[in-house]
Design brief:
Elements (H helix, E strand, L loop, with lengths): L2 H9 L3 E5 L1 H10 L5 E6 L9 H13 L5 E5 H6 L7 H18 L8 E4 L6 H12 L3 H7 L17 H13 L3 E5 L3 H14 L5 E5 L17 H9 L16 H9 L12 H10 L7 E3 L9 E3 L2 H9 L5 H15 L1 H8 L2 H13 L1
Parallel strand pairs: 2-3, 2-5, 3-4, 5-6
Antiparallel strand pairs: 1-6, 7-8
């Protein structure tokens, strides 16, 4: 595969930022199979923003020749009090349900490497945590704590101060060439790249992806330094609001119900989660059209060859919200069928995570 095609695959949606393209070009010119990493807290059921968006992007990276790693961040989840702060439960769900969610979306071993964070934490790792901490300030570290999904003033446990340094140390410990994350993780990746230069460690290329909106209307959180990122973080799909997110193994009926209740005002295209699903998931492939089925008296069936055409038609009021929702629910159910079928054959995995969510 030629270099330009590889760059195109890395830049493909849902990627939004690449730090930097020049470094990525140099990497591909000297390394046919660069190593990659993306890390996740273990915090419950896997939704579209975590699972589907990640799976699509990792498949792009694999097509470009990269060797991917999914990092199951058990200590980070513990620090951030996920699953009630129960480390044993976090590890069980990480190795069982959480890993299986990605496998169900086509990210099987050995094509994808899965690493439980605490299993690779040795003396050198903790030495790097200290070195990273010494190479930055408390103020900078506090600013990076927004990667935990919190405002700076919301972090109450002192362990939270360890979190950004540990995330940077994860990248150095794995020795990866490319670090992938959502735009909400940008601060810690920038810190990692800066610290790498100071400490003469491998400096990773960073790829930051779009944060898929939840099905609710966006609310601002108050990150004044970056209004656009503030909107993305506040509006992103979150399992803390179950009715506003779609899990990768939801039934067809559940998908239709949630999409039917979603925020999708007539003629409004900006910050519209249903149109966003079309752009970043259903119509991501430029060859993939969206078919809308409706009675002849309402315009008859229609097919949209591009997101631009769909948005224009919707903004002009020529496509009703419920007709759009019905088409999206149908196509999303098809897209998620492999995951749904996978968990239907393994109900014990869903029970595993559900039992933890109930008791936490």
């Amino acid at each position: 595969m030629d270099l330009e095609k590889k760059i195109e695959l890395v830049r493909r949606k849902p990627a939004e930022e690449l730090l930097t393209e020049e470094e990525l070009r140099q990497l591909f010119q000297t390394n046919e199979h660069p190593t990659h990493y993306i890390g996740f807290e273990i915090s419950g059921k896997v939704h579209l923003g975590t699972g589907l968006m990640t799976a699509m992007k990792i498949k792009d990276f694999m097509e470009a020749g990269m060797k991917p790693t999914i990092f199951l961040a058990d200590y980070h989840s513990w620090i951030n009090n996920k699953l009630g702060g129960d480390l044993e439960a976090i590890r069980k769900v990480a190795a069982g349900y959480f890993k299986s969610a990605f496998v169900s979306l086509g990210l099987e071993e050995p094509k994808v490497r899965y690493v439980l964070a605490s299993e690779i934490y040795d003396k050198e790792y903790w030495r790097n945590v200290v070195r990273i901490s010494k190479a930055t300030t408390i103020k900078r570290m506090t600013r990076c704590m927004t990667i935990m999904g919190r405002k700076e003033e919301e972090a109450v446990e002192s362990a939270s101060l360890l979190y950004p340094a540990m995330q940077a140390a994860d990248i150095f410990q794995l020795g990866v060439d490319v670090a992938q994350a959502g735009m909400d993780q940008r601060k810690v990746h920038v810190l990692t790249r800066e610290v790498a230069e100071k400490l003469k460690l491998k400096k990773p290329v960073a790829v930051h992806g779009h944060l898929l909106m939840g099905l609710q209307q966006a609310q601002r959180m108050g990150y004044e330094e970056n209004a656009r990122l503030d909107m993305e973080i506040s509006a992103k799909m979150s399992k803390s609001k179950p009715e506003t997110c779609i899990y990768v193994h939801d039934s067809e009926e559940e998908i239709k119900r949630k999409i039917g209740k979603a925020y999708c005002p007539e003629k409004v295209v900006e910050e519209n989660p249903i149109l966003e699903l079309c752009e970043y998931a259903l119509m991501r492939d430029p060859k993939k059209a969206l078919r809308v089925e409706r009675p002849a008296k309402f315009g008859g069936n229609a097919e949209f060859a591009s997101v631009e055409e769909l948005r224009k038609t919707y903004s002009e009021g020529k496509l009703h919200p419920m007709d759009l929702k019905n088409a999206v629910a149908r196509e999303l159910a098809v897209l998620l069928k492999p995951s749904r079928d996978y968990f239907a054959k393994r109900p014990e995995l869903l029970k595993q995570v559900e039992s933890v969510e109930i008791t936490r």
